[in-house]
């Protein structure tokens, strides 16, 4: 066992520790492909093959000696901590036994000089690759070969045997909100959903990939299951009732890593340069740049990333307050992925820190919650008999890889001109309100009538109570009361009030077609549509080079605007509903008056747009890349929406006035609400 080694980098005089190698253990046999375990205070790993080692992550010197538990005759291949804290249970599995240990009792016996013993709950089940306690710690799921054994955690008894996979089962997890539900993945490249009490198979997926599925994680908050394979691919499936276990998103770690380097504005070489300030950084002259090897990114472990740590008032590196992130443990490094936009937030490669004892990991385990902003990571080497415990500073890791544009104190201001006045309830009105409220209220405001020129005072001999001898003879303004009321104006005002009703926030998205009409005598594609601001008119751009304006209820004869030499791609309304702007494939932009079918202005442009009233947010859609919600304040994608089919053709999107729903087109001739 070696002493801890500190690895750090320095950036502009600010020292930030990223990785601390707390402990290094040497085993007599390789421990490359085993299931490791971490919880809030302990880490469990096999040592010398059949010996179970429990390490306390506390900083007290009394905790620097691990607890050794002996009971297996063959090499330990799987470990797991119990779900409860009191008592804290540990399960270890090998080819000969599956043993449950009470950690508190074992610690007491070890302090008394006695040999700690566990409870054998399974015997000769075969090669065990994964174990997991049930939420109540009453049962243990043991993945041995192609089967899953449900064992009693208190005595040696097989409760249920789940059989159906065609290859070794690599992981299994309990669904906490669904009673008696267990989900498993296998080297047969599929996942299955079981009722572990009755042994019935509820659902089985198709073959997902050409590579074995290695890891599994259940997101309780979003009710999703996430699995990863040996080729760096991730799949997220919905577990909501009625979703039929549909795939929400498919993530390629290699592509996301390349996108991350491009997004941060730093190449891989630039990120590696940061580590040159590390105390233990040393270049390897034996390996020339042209001899670098590209390795795969097998997903060895998926774990929740605790982002509730205090990062400072100005150092909010996470994109959103409610955004959830995941740790992805691979053989070459660790990745933090955002579950809101499914993009990488940080990348930590082991070889970037040459002082680390392990450069290629065979197994990985991560702590679910951070302790004082630090996360523990347990690794075993793929090629050596080495086990290492790393302490990662999450805030320092995030800060070291942020874009230069977004680093605190270096941001460049971005100004966007609003296309219309602010709404009364807009949060941007707070500044102007504060300025108005700061004005003194005890000073009298003098209008034009109240102003007087400086002149000398004249006192008369007789002064009446009114003030002067004679009242000023001035004809004051008197309003005319004999005017007839203009009925047309009042009717127009009342109609506007009826038309401009507020959009009810509790409204649900429309799902039924109210009316359908034909816009042309022959089949013609509708390229774009846009409602006017009050929702009374609807503009349609057609592929036959014409622009039509309908009433919103699609009654009457539409107004036809002609003049483009190509299909109309985009159309927008002015805020007073008197002007239209259209863009066409003829690379021109035309402005129309709704009272005249001839263009009022002709411009040479290919695109047009109309910003929404959400000044900081906008949405985009791209072929094969889903729908993304962007924020101008952070200059990044905050949400990504999947579910519609979009492989070949661009699909349109629209947002409801309440901002709660998104309508998007799909290549299966349907409109979907998100």
Architecture overview:
With 674 residues, the protein is mainly β. Helices cover 8% and strands 36% of the residues. A 5-stranded antiparallel sheet has the order 1-2-29-28-27. The protein has a 4-stranded antiparallel sheet with strand order 3-4-5-6, with helices on one face. The protein has a 4-stranded antiparallel sheet with strand order 7-8-9-10. It is elongated and about 100 Å long. The two termini are 54 Å apart. Mean pLDDT is 77; it is low at 2-16, 273-291, 310-318, 404-417, 431-452, 463-469 and 605-612. It comes from Chelydra serpentina (Snapping turtle). InterPro entries: WD40/YVTN_repeat-like_dom_sf, WD40_repeat_dom_sf, WD40_rpt, WDR27.
Quick structural gist:
This protein has 674 residues and is mainly beta.
Give the CA-CA distance, first to last residue: 54 Å
Average pLDDT score: 77
Q: Provide the low-confidence segments as ranges.
A: 2-16, 273-291, 310-318, 404-417, 431-452, 463-469, 605-612
Q: What does the largest sheet look like?
A: 5 strands, antiparallel
Secondary structure layout:
Layout: E1 5-11, E2 14-26, E3 37-38, E4 42-47, E5 51-56, E6 67-70, E7 78-81, E8 89-93, E9 97-102, H1 103-111, E10 119-123, E11 128-133, E12 139-144, E13 147-152, E14 158-163, E15 169-175, E16 181-186, E17 191-195, E18 200-204, E19 213-219, E20 224-229, E21 233-238, E22 247-252, H2 253-264, H3 268-274, E23 301-305, E24 325-329, E25 333-338, E26 344-349, E27 361-366, E28 374-381, E29 386-393, H4 394-400, H5 429-437, H6 487-499, E30 526-531, E31 537-542, E32 546-551, E33 559-562, E34 568-573, E35 579-584, E36 589-593, E37 599-603, E38 617-622, E39 626-631, E40 636-641, E41 653-655, E42 662-665, E43 671-673
Antiparallel strand pairs: 1-2, 2-29, 3-4, 4-5, 5-6, 7-8, 8-9, 9-10, 11-12, 12-13, 13-14, 15-16, 16-17, 17-18, 19-20, 20-21, 21-22, 23-24, 24-25, 25-26, 27-28, 28-29, 30-31, 31-32, 32-33, 34-35, 35-36, 36-37, 38-39, 39-40, 41-42, 42-43
């Amino acid at each position: 066992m070696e002493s801890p080694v500190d690895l750090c980098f320095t950036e502009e005089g600010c020292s930030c520790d990223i990785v601390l190698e707390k402990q290094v253990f040497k085993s007599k046999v390789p421990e490359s492909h085993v299931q490791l375990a971490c919880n809030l205070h302990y880490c469990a790993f096999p040592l010398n093959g059949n010996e179970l080692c429990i390490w306390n992550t506390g900083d007290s010197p009394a905790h620097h000696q691990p607890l050794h538990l002996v009971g297996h005759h063959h090499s330990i291949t799987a470990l797991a901590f119990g779900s409860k804290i009191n008592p804290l249970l540990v399960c270890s599995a090998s080819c000969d036994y599956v043993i449950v240990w009470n950690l508190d009792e074992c610690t007491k016996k070890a302090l008394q000089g006695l040999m700690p013993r566990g409870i054998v709950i399974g015997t000769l089940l075969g090669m065990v690759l994964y174990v997991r306690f049930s939420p109540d710690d009453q049962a243990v799921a043991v993945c041995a070969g192609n089967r899953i054994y449900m064992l009693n955690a208190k005595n040696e008894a097989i409760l249920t045997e789940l059989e159906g996979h065609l290859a070794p089962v690599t992981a299994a997890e309990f669904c906490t909100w669904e009673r008696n539900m267990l989900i498993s993945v296998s080297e047969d490249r599929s996942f299955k959903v079981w009722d572990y009490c009755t042994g019935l198979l509820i659902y089985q997926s198709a073959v997902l990939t050409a590579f074995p599925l290695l890891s599994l994680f259940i997101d309780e908050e979003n009710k999703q299951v996430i699995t990863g394979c040996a080729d760096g691919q991730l799949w997220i499936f919905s577990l909501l009732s009625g979703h039929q276990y549909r795939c929400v998103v498919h993530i390629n770690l290699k592509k996301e890593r390349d996108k991350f380097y491009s997004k941060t504005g730093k190449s891989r070489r630039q990120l590696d340069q940061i580590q040159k300030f590390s105390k233990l950084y040393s270049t390897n002259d034996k390996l020339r740049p042209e001899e670098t090897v590209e390795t795969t990114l097998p997903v060895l472990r998926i774990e929740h990333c605790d982002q509730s740590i205090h990062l400072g008032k100005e150092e909010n590196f996470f994109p959103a307050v409610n955004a959830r992130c995941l740790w992805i443990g691979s053989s070459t490094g660790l990745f933090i992925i955002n579950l809101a936009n499914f993009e990488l937030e940080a990348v930590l490669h082991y070889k970037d820190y040459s002082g680390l004892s392990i450069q290629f990991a065979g197994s990985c385990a991560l702590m679910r919650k951070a302790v004082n902003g630090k996360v523990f990571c347990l690794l075993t080497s793929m090629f050596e008999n080495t086990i290492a415990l790393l302490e990662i500073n999450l805030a320092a890791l995030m800060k070291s890889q942020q874009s230069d544009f977004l680093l605190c104190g270096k941001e460049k201001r971005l100004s966007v001109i609003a296309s219309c006045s602010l709404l009364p309830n807009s949060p941007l009105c707070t500044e102007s309100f504060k300025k108005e409220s700061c004005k003194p209220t005890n000073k009298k405001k003098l209008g034009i009538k109240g102003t007087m020129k400086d002149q000398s005072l004249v006192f008369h001999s007789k002064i009446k109570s009114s003030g002067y001898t004679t009242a000023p003879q001035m004809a004051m303004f008197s309003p005319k009361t004999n005017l007839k009321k203009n009925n047309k104006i009042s009717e127009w005002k009342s109609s506007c009030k009826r038309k401009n009703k507020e959009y009810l926030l509790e409204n649900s998205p429309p799902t039924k077609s109210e009316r359908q009409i034909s816009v042309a005598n022959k089949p013609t594609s509708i390229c774009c549509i846009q409602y006017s601001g009050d929702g009374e008119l609807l503009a349609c751009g057609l592929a036959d080079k014409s622009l039509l304006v309908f009433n919103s209820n699609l009654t009457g004869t539409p107004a036809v605007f002609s003049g483009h030499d190509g299909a109309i791609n985009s159309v927008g309304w002015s805020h007073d509903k008197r002007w239209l702007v259209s863009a066409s494939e003829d690379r021109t932009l035309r402005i129309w008056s709704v009272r005249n079918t001839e263009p009022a202005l002709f411009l040479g442009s290919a695109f047009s747009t109309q910003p929404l009233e959400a000044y900081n947010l906008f949405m985009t859609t791209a072929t094969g890349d889903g729908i993304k919600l962007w924020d101008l304040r952070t200059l990044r994608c905050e949400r990504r929406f999947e579910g519609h089919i979009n492989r070949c053709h661009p699909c349109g999107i629209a947002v409801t006035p309440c901002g709660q729903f998104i309508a998007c087109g799909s290549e299966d001739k349907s409109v979907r609400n998100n």
